[in-house]
Design a protein that fits this description.
The chain has one domain. A hairpin with a 5-residue loop joins strand 1 and strand 2. It has a three-stranded antiparallel sheet with strand order 2-1-3. Helix 1 runs antiparallel to helix 3, helix 3 crosses helix 11 and helix 4 packs antiparallel against helix 7. The chain is mainly alpha-helical. The two termini are 15 Å apart.
């Protein structure tokens, strides 16, 4: 078998097992004084479940760097059959990711769209229902989404969640992050000068205009309609001094890069022994 094909099979099989094993992990209850701190915590929890599978893929890539092409041994049929469900799972996630970019969910009211260069769309129907202060508050909320490239983050988080299908724990983590994301952007908009009552008026008007949930990767003003009461209550309360500071953190790719590099080195050094053992067991 060609080396690249066998590499794909191994990544699907071993990486898929790691994904499902970590996807089962129950989401923990989290609370924080600052919605922005809460959003950071829940966001990391989505990605920590993906790190083991990514490390496995890096390790196998290290093995492939020193493996002759084609693979000299015959690949057992059992390995190919075991990898098929995970290949189908990856295909499903890819199709859903592509479809989410192409589907049209109608008028979102106001939302931030665009993966690499986010921009804000604002429905004229919504604008007619709001006064100038509410429009400014809604725009401030969407600018916060654009600054953080939230449409791209939503799209990537949805892919990770789909790769851990059918575990409900993965969906729960994604939904908890979406809720925390909207609360964080509300808080950021208020910190930038938007009035909470004006933003609450804009959210309620957008919810009346839009009766169905917005699909990713759109960062919409209304977010999860099921938690609108919680959002409105927070917006109508005074913006308190944050007891928990939103501290600067190292970007996650910079933290993960050394781990993946080490995995590649270990794979190139010891991958052959492990892969040959796997082939003998499967045979």
């Amino acid at each position: 078998m060609e080396r690249e094909c066998f590499l794909t099979v191994l990544i699907a099989l071993i990486g898929g097992i790691a994904l499902l094993a970590c996807g089962w992990w129950p989401p923990a209850e989290t609370s924080a004084e600052s919605a922005r701190c809460l959003e950071h915590v829940v966001w990391r929890r989505i990605w920590w479940t993906f790190v083991p599978a990514l490390t496995v893929a890096a390790w196998l890539c290290g093995w492939a760097l020193v493996e002759p092409d084609p693979v000299p041994e015959k690949v057992p049929v059992a390995v190919l059959i075991a990898a098929v469900p995970f290949l189908l799972l990856f295909t499903r996630a890819a199709i859903r990711a592509g479809w989410s970019l192409l589907r049209d969910d109608g008028d979102p009211g106001t939302a931030t769209v665009g993966l690499l260069k986010p921009w804000i769309v604002f429905s004229p129907h919504l604008a007619k229902a709001l006064d100038d202060r509410a429009i400014a508050a809604a725009l401030e909320h969407e600018r916060a989404h654009a600054r953080h490239r939230d449409p791209l983050r939503i799209w990537l988080a949805q892919i990770v969640t789909d790769l851990q299908w059918p575990w409900p724990q993965a969906r729960d983590r994604f939904r908890a992050w979406i809720v925390a994301l909207e609360l964080a952007r509300d808080e950021e908009a208020r910190a930038a000068g938007a009035d909470g009552s004006d933003l609450a008026s804009a959210i309620l008007a957008a919810a009346r205009l839009r009766q169905h949930a917005i699909a990713s990767p759109v960062a919409a003003l209304i977010g999860e309609q099921s938690v609108l009461k919680q959002r409105i209550a927070r917006l109508l309360n005074p913006l308190t001094d944050q007891a928990e500071e939103v501290r600067a953190r190292w970007p996650q790719p910079l933290i993960l890069a050394p781990v993946l590099l080490i995995a590649v080195v270990l794979g190139s050094a010891f991958g052959e022994i492990v892969v040959r053992t796997l082939l003998r067991i499967a045979a």
